[in-house]
Design goal:
mainly beta
Length: 253
Amino acid sequence: MDDDGPWSAGQLFGKTGKGLHGQGSGSGFFNSFQIPFAQHVNVTVEIPADLVSEEQLPFWLVLRGRTHAKLSLPGGMALPISARLRSYLSTVPLLAPAAHLQVVNTSMQHGAVMLIVLAVTSPRGHYQFLEGCMRAAHVGTSAPEYLLSSGTEDYFLGTFYFDAGQYFMPIAGVTSLCPPPNKGSRTVACNPAVSASVRFSAYRVHGSSDPLLFERPFSISWRNGEPGHGGAPPAYVNATAFALVYEWTGPPR
């Protein structure tokens, strides 16, 4: 979701270059999380729309797998062999202040959220949108929603608008923070350079040490700021969320 790099979340996934938009520079991506299937699987590569007209766009793809493997979350928590990994992608080019961005919305009875990625670009030169909380709810019930965090930073295990700069850990990381919130903050060089706007992206892994499980239809959303928090209200932002969720039917794990 960004052109910054390299970085990695330990052995689980990562990026080894600056991306396809880096003035001809190469880029590599890897992941080692389990993608289960029963008998057949199709793997496709989608070329970004702004690169479709390129005369040559070489790439290499390496696939490895196992048969009769046990399925588990990162860290070893066992999952049913019938579980399948589903992806969720949601983009809102102009998300209003205090509006919600859907991250996950599943009708499955059982599952485990494995990964959530959030990317936000704001035309204003501040990070007020980081006041927004991650929320979860049971779909189709009158049960109240509940908070997964008290702001964007602590969901991704950061504090105070990520004032210490970027970090890349197996459980969470900030992959883009442009410009850095404080002078001297640790940050990978912003590419491309950002002037009046700010750009942020981060990932959160829910493995065996911190699982996020559900046993009824389930949803997660992120909010663009919170009314009354952070001084100036947030701006309209361009926001994208990506999630990977193991889902299954039948009895609980």
